[in-house]
Design brief:
The protein is mainly α. It contains 29 helices and four strands.
Length: 729
């Protein structure tokens, strides 16, 4: 039978029962979206426990368009006006949906700290639209009698949801101000750490990274949000809403609250209502864990050792209203009508902002009252919770590196207890040390002579231009030459690729720090990345299979070098015009240019065939070793240069790298950089070459990096002396 039956009299008689057939499928959809929210909240909770971050950052369940869309579907039962839901479980499902939404909002709150102003505005606007829709629909159902069970609980749940939104709004207003305050402090202390001497090896580098971690963790925007009184009040409200749901659930099950018809579920959703209620109740339980733990975190931060002091006062700190005051003092960004009209608009704006400032102050005072009440409760009933765990000296050691806002003077005590969190990252790195790379670095010379030998500057090709060197491209080019020369089987090739791959991981960090100006140097780095991808994955250079070249065909090493040179020169001639500026060269041409110069330099060394491979290995080791002398500075620069949202993750990554390179750093202590090379210049391979050769390179790499290339004629005159090439020989 269809939805409508056509009678012999051509009249349409609708079959009402058929219109309810899709409802169980919609119920499955609601249950699925509820489970997605439950799973995301559970993922946040599990991650928080695994990382011992008991303030539970919002990573998997944050305030964004996707989560709001899923949450809107999950709470559909509370918004449903069209389908009769007279059963007790049907009535309870409306309450569970509203409290499920309130719990989700409490879990959203920390994620506001990681958003920019535009995202905060868009997401909060979408959330308030969803909340208003909820309020209107629930009010209509309460007013018309569609909801006749758990009415008081439902009214409380709606009030809790709007209180949570108001707390989120107040917190969102201070996010830019707190970020600016903490960013300024971070940069000031970073400059102090930058001046510290890191020559002592891994120990001093570890200490520096721990300092960066203390700063990054304490200034984490989500952690700052969690520590605020507004977030504490939100967490308390979330816990209260869970209590309301629990007592309603007890009444439903133990006291057997039933509807007038005595049924549990009699709506068109059928038994799916039962499934949805259980999923959402479980979601509320799991979702309340994070707010509950956040309450204890804030209580611990706001009370000093032993609970003798309290850093919480009634008066709101300046940053709570600073942004609103700036808006009030600023001029109108538009011009409409005459002077009197603009004056009236400005006056109205001032009135609105004055009201918002007073409302913000009242909100903060209310949140602090709630916080002080619980502080007093904790002191009386759980004094052991506030017992000191560390001495004053340990707290003093970390206090200067813990970034906190006004009213958070006791935060260093909590951070001091967690200062050893990075230990597991150090240890994990130590357990994964690059053994193949260590073997390669053991071949390097005392003075890093290979840094100058890899390109002896004796090839004037048809293109009289000099590209800036990065650390990565010469290593990849020399590795390509070795693979073309090798005839001892796949195992040695795999070992070489493994050692170079391990080294390039750290070289990339140094090259990233050197790449401050972008432009041509960035193109050289990109060319190196593309060349390495072809070599590592396919064993090819410029689309030529290196395994089919050279010694494998019976050629001598010199024949292989000449062949690589000719391949590179032919590729350049085919793809680049004579007078084309090198800043516009394709990436493969840059790689070919490197091969052309380096293969010629290796050939010019006139090393015996039996010693050539070892000679190139030494050059690769020298370049990698010279580069890795910059690792301590590169690590500290990377920790200080990333955005505030990514600092903690970056510092943990750097801690892992320090653990991995512990033996390498010890090895490099026996190979000091040249005495005449300033520490600030060590990060640039061209500066190394200038220092080791004792004279300037023909064209300054700094000019190349600023993209100020000379004209073709001027460059040609600068290269007036032609040096011998392979063809001349």
């Amino acid at each position: 039978m269809g939805y409508c039956d056509e009678s012999p009299m051509d009249s349409i008689k609708c079959n009402r029962d058929s219109f309810s057939k899709p409802m169980p499928w919609i119920g499955i959809y609601i249950a699925a979206t509820s489970f997605i929210c439950l799973f995301a909240m559970a993922a946040n909770t599990v991650q928080g426990f695994c990382r011992r971050k008991f303030w539970f950052p919002s990573k998997f369940f944050a305030l964004n368009a996707a989560s709001l869309t899923v949450l809107g579907v999950a709470t559909k039962l509370a918004l449903d006006l069209n389908n009769p839901m007279p059963g007790s479980f049907d009535q309870f499902s409306k309450l569970s949906s509203v409290i499920f939404m309130a719990t989700s909002m409490a879990n959203f709150t920390p994620s506001l700290g990681a958003m920019n102003n535009k995202d905060v505005l868009l997401n909060m606007t979408a959330l308030v639209i969803l909340l208003i829709t909820l309020l209107v629909n629930v009010s209509i159902q309460l007013g018309t009698g569609l909801i006749f069970l758990f009415r008081v609980e439902l009214v409380l749940a709606v009030c809790f949801a709007f209180l949570l939104f108001w707390m989120m709004s107040c917190s969102a207003l201070v996010v830019p101000t707190t970020k600016m305050i903490l960013e300024r402090k971070y940069l000031e202390i970073s400059e102090m750490i930058a001046y510290e001497n890191l020559e002592g090896g891994g120990v001093k580098l570890r200490e520096a990274v721990i300092k960066y971690w203390l700063m990054a963790e304490s200034s984490n925007p989500q952690y700052v949000m969690v520590r605020s009184p507004a977030c504490f009040a939100s967490s308390v409200i979330s816990c209260l809403s869970a209590v309301v749901l629990c007592q309603a659930f007890i009444r439903l099950y133990l006291l057997r609250v039933q509807s007038e018809d005595g049924g549990h579920y009699s709506s068109d959703y059928q038994v799916l209502t039962y499934v949805i209620v259980w999923i959402q109740c479980l979601g509320v339980v799991i979702g309340t864990l994070a707010p509950l733990f956040r309450c204890f975190i804030v209580l611990k931060i706001k009370s000093s050792s032993g609970g003798r002091e309290c850093s919480c006062t009634f008066s709101p700190e300046i940053y709570w209203t600073e942004r609103l005051k700036k808006w009030k003092e600023s001029h109108l960004p538009f011009q409409i009508g005459g002077r009197c009209f603009m004056k009236a608009i400005k006056k109205f704006e001032d009135m609105v902002l004055c009201f918002c400032i007073k409302l913000q102050v009242l909100t903060v005072v209310f949140c602090k009252l709630v916080l002080i009440f619980f502080l007093a409760f904790i002191r009386l009933l759980l004094p052991c919770f506030l017992q000191p765990k560390l001495g004053d000296s340990e707290v003093h050691d970390v206090s200067r590196y813990v970034l906190h806002l006004e009213g958070e003077d006791l935060l260093p005590e909590v951070m001091a207890e967690n200062k050893n969190v990075l230990g597991k990252f150090f240890q994990k790195g130590i357990d994964q040390q690059p053994k193949q790379l260590l073997k390669l670095l053991e071949k390097m010379t005392a003075n890093f002579n290979g840094v100058t030998k890899f390109d002896s500057n004796n090839d004037i090709s048809r293109y009289p231009q000099v590209l800036p060197n990065c650390w990565k491209l010469p290593v990849i080019t020399l590795t390509s030459i070795v693979i073309a020369l090798l005839d001892s089987g796949v195992k040695e090739v795999e070992n070489l690729l493994s050692s170079v791959s391990q080294g390039l991981k750290y070289v990339s960090i140094v090259d990233e720090i050197l790449d401050t100006g972008g432009g041509l140097f960035k193109r050289v780095r990109d060319a190196a990345d593309e060349a390495w991808s072809d070599l590592h994955l396919y064993g090819k250079f410029l689309n030529k299979d290196l395994s089919q070249m050279g010694c494998k065909k019976g050629n001598t090493p010199n024949d292989v070098l000449i062949e690589l040179y000719e391949i590179a020169r032919a590729y350049i001639g085919k793809n680049v015009e004579l007078d084309k500026d090198c800043s516009r060269w394709p990436k493969k041409v840059i790689a070919a240019y490197s091969m052309q110069r380096i293969s010629n330099s290796v050939w010019a060394e006139k090393v015996e065939n039996e010693k050539l491979l070892e000679h190139i290995y030494v050059m690769i080791g020298d370049i990698l070793g010279a580069c890795l002398t910059n690792l301590p500075e590169a690590v500290t620069r990377k920790c200080s240069s990333v955005s505030i949202e990514k600092r903690e993750e970056t510092v943990q990554e750097m801690a892992h790298i320090i653990g991995e390179t512990e033996e390498i750093l010890k090895l490099l202590q026996n190979h000091p950089p040249p005495v005449n090379l300033e520490s600030k210049k060590r990060i640039d391979i061209d500066e190394w070459r200038r220092s080791l050769m004792g004279m300037s390179l023909s064209v300054s790499s700094s000019l190349s990096r600023s993209n100020t290339s000379a004209s073709a004629s001027a460059s040609a005159s600068a290269w007036s002396v032609a040096l011998p090439t392979f063809t001349d020989s």
